[in-house]
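User: For my dataset I need records formatted as: sequence, then structure tokens, nothing else. Please produce one.
Assistant:
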Amino acid sequence: GTEVINTNDKQRRRQQQQQNEQQQQQTHRPAVEVWDGVFSTEVCQFLHELAIDHSERTTSEDEDEDDDNAPSAVIEKIGITEFDMEDFKLINMSDTYDRRDGVPDEETFADLKEAMKIMGFTRDEMTNVFGVTTAFLHASNLTFETVGEIECRLEMDNPHLDYVVDLLGITKEGLNKALCYYEITIGGRGGKGGETHQKVLSQEQAEKGILALVKATYGALFNHLVARVNASIAGDAGAGGKAKGKGRGAAKGASIGILDIFGFESFLVNSFEQLCINYCNEALQQQFNLFVLRNEQEEYDREGIPWSFIEFPENQDVLDLIAFKGTGILNILHDQCRTPGASDKTFAMAMYNKCAPHKRFEADARQTAEQLFGVHHYAGLVEYDVDGFVEKTRDELPKSGSDLLHSSKKRIG
């Protein structure tokens, strides 16, 4: 009956989603935004670009480096020689490992290192950045063993574990505690004076904790790199690429703003990732309309320059549909993730109830039956499948994971 049809539809959409993942290898991702306070692509901090061929890239290290940073030493330290790209779970899902534009990885990696040098990154800082990124690859291969009925622990003889703790500057015991246990403090104020209880996590929960740890660390690394790049091009920068002035009132020389308008994504099956990417597209398009079209044309008008004004559609209503406080799709999703027993179905129902009147929102009888919805974006209609939305949003890093990262002996800069 209907249940069988819906199940088959789900299987079909999952197969199409796998095809999407391969298509995404060719899709342009957001570049680092360097406008002073214009817009941040923080919502697009995903692991789409995490798959880096370190074996090829690291071998291009300059030969005049000291022994600790020589190519062979670096490769051995980050654990590349023992494994192929296909061995890492984080990057072997799509079976796509080579660029399709014909550009050699060695050339782009050499350009990347040169750019980082110009931005003021030292050799040690670059090595740590690449090392942390490689740690993500090893972390995806960590495994657990059961202890008792529910409890689990890291398999200490896993060959990837040593690389993870060394590259992240943490301990095996600390990592095991952060992934396999959860601490709850009852009473007290500000985390002090209360009673702390330790909860055992299942193997499934611990495995999800690995992904949360990777995403949180990647997000912190991304923010750090953006801050360093912005500081370096701020005009009045000191040694090491760190700006001398602080705040908006600091002296600032001539600068160039880069606003990268990248393509909207619309596949056969569109999920949470596409919604986030297209939300960024909407915000970037609004900035383009504001700074390039509206402001420039108003400037022409003030200066009395003859000009035929260009009409352009507004998209603030789309941004409100996706992220407006209380009624936006992302806000509804976050509220659901904080609700016990929430699922993709409960999220879909809450979204249908709140967003149905919005002119940019679409959910007909077929879509509601299959837990789909459509958004009329600036570039056109995109239909999304809510399957996986809640799970993908829920992987917040527990406090024990944050404490573990703060205890790291590694310093990027």
